[in-house]
Amino acid sequence: MKLSIGENIRxxxxxxxxxxxxxxxxxxxxxxxxxxxxxGSAYPDMELLPAISEIFSVPVDELLGIPEGEKEKRAEExxxxxxxxxxxxxxxxxxxxxxxxxxxxxxxxxxxxxxxxAVWKFWMSGFDQxxxxxxxxxxxxxxxxxxxxRRPYSTDVIEKMAIIEDEDRIEAFLKRYATPYDIxxxxxxxxxxxxRNEPDKATPLQNQKLFEIIDxxxxxxxxxxxxxxxxxxxxxxxxxxxxxxxxxxAEETPTPEHPITCGKGVDYWAESRIEIGIRRxxxxxxxxxxxxxxxxxxxxxxxxxxxxxxxxxxxxETSRFTPTVKWTAEESWYNPNxxxxxxxxxxxIDSSGNCCFCVYPSQYLYMLTAERGWEWFDPIRNxxxxxxxxxRVENLVETxxx
Length: 402
Description:
The structure is a single chain. This protein is mainly alpha-helical and 402 residues long. It has three domains: 5-64, lambda repressor-like DNA-binding domains (434 Repressor (Amino-terminal Domain)); 68-178; 209-400, no CATH class. The chain has helices at residues 5-15, 20-27, 31-39, 49-56, 60-64, 68-87, 95-112, 120-124, 128-131, 137-150, 155-164, 170-177, 185-195, 199-218, 232-249, 270-286, 290-308, 361-369, 384-394; strands at 314-315, 328-334, 343-350, 356-359, 399-400. Strands 1, 2, 3, 4 and 5 form a five-stranded antiparallel β-sheet that branches. A hairpin with an 8-residue loop joins strand 2 (328-334) and strand 3 (343-350).
């Protein structure tokens, strides 16, 4: 690949209104060296590239003239490596080495690839503990600022920083980047439609907002098995409340045989039902309500099996309270951790891009078989009915290479 670094240095130098001598002085080289770079008879040393890019306020890749496709490819490689290193099991003696490499990746992504599409993988990674490490956080913060300067509406960056930012900085961050609801796009459109007496146009927005409110109340992904900070009673009470909201919104009544699904087929609450149900089974097992725990688990596994039978795109049952929010489900193949490696068959549940869920059997298999973090299942692990459920979920996991 031919580099156009000499042409770029000459162009950028002239834009900065610098002479060859002035640029050479700032870099600690001779003006003859700068002249040779610009004529293409020599290239600058690799060690000088960061300094040159800083003087001209451009990424190193732009300085080198690397094509956009190559930049995207390199950005994706770095993001994949970052995700892989975060989740890898490392011996203690290798921890510092791993951390140093993670820091190098963040610096390179921030310096050269902050505008690339591929960096969504970095900001969507789930390993918040590493990102907010005090040794790494200053560089992550700079990366976020540069990404948002180049792409102001990168909600993935804003949402991630809202989670990991330091307590003494969070208010300043929100003041700078959060969009107040009363001037948000949907809120302005809602005001427009109501003022112009166009309620039919307002209905889809109202439906979507109502769904989001109910989903926030029902969604069980915010519930963690943390024995140090939450009691079993607290977890179970919250689980019961969330399940109650789901049943009320879906206008259904649970039965002894179907305490989670109420005997219904697959609907757009399928992912929430499965996760709420698995956690409920876990809590019930630890409360020594074994038969209830096993019944809940069997109901959930049956629902998961029904979900995984889906292949072609199908429409799902929605609520009469949100009739304009349409839901579909279809088969998909993707790596559940957004990393290189085998793809897993999953069911993609979507509402025209407004909200989506992915149902991965391997994630639920992990909940049922993990040795750490799910000890509350221990009282029923040796029950034949429990082992049968684990086997049924195991049979749903399908993988393939790309």
